[in-house]
Amino acid sequence: MVFSPRRLTEPGLAFSPFLVSITLKDPKGEPVRDAEIDWWQADTTGSYSYSTYNLRGKFYTNAEGQIQILTVIPGKYGPAGHLRAGHFHLIIRDKENKWQQLTSQLYVCQANDGAELGSDFLNFVRTPRTINVLQCWSIPSGEEKCMDFPELSSDELETIENVNRWNAMLADVDTSLKVVAGAQTEIHMNAKSGFFSF
């Protein structure tokens, strides 16, 4: 995880917990185990930490190619009229060096609407990456849904179990902290090109 539940109470990290679950697979759909995910992001106000390296870390997938990262919703930032949607940066490297290294971003948009990427100032040099918009879910507090994400379905038993496990850890630190939203995604690695590719 990007930070431990205990660090959620530190100054600058007092934002609502967001749970990201990633499954990493090879081109044949098999899990990529022990892959390194180098992760960094802005906090919910859109600020990056350049001195303390908060909200940064390196994580490794398990035997099923899965990883869970407890973090916060990344905020928008940029010049007025050209804001970048909140996003997570990641670089993925597999341990056995079979697959191409992947450098990418995963976007968190209001109501999961990729149109939010239309104002990104990077659109001057590349096309919007709407395929990288996470389909997020919310656990409403009363009638309020986090960022208008759809409510987590009661059929998502594994995700609900994961949320409950994380909430139990958070409760050991601060009973007011609970996972409010999250997303799960599957990422497929590409084979290396060239004479020695597998």
UniProtKB/TrEMBL annotation:
Ranges for domain Intradiol ring-cleavage dioxygenases: 18-108
GO molecular function annotations of the record: ferric iron binding; oxidoreductase activity, acting on single donors with incorporation of molecular oxygen, incorporation of two atoms of oxygen
Record-linked SUPFAM superfamilies: Aromatic compound dioxygenase (SSF49482)
Keyword set includes Transmembrane: no
Pfam families, per database record: Dioxygenase_C
Superkingdom of the source species: Eukaryota
Alphabetical UniProt keywords: Dioxygenase, Oxidoreductase
Family that this chain belongs to: Belongs to the intradiol ring-cleavage dioxygenase family.
Protein name, UniProt field: Intradiol ring-cleavage dioxygenases domain-containing protein
Species whose genome carries this gene: Hermanssonia centrifuga
Lineage of the species this protein comes from: Eukaryota, Fungi, Dikarya, Basidiomycota, Agaricomycotina
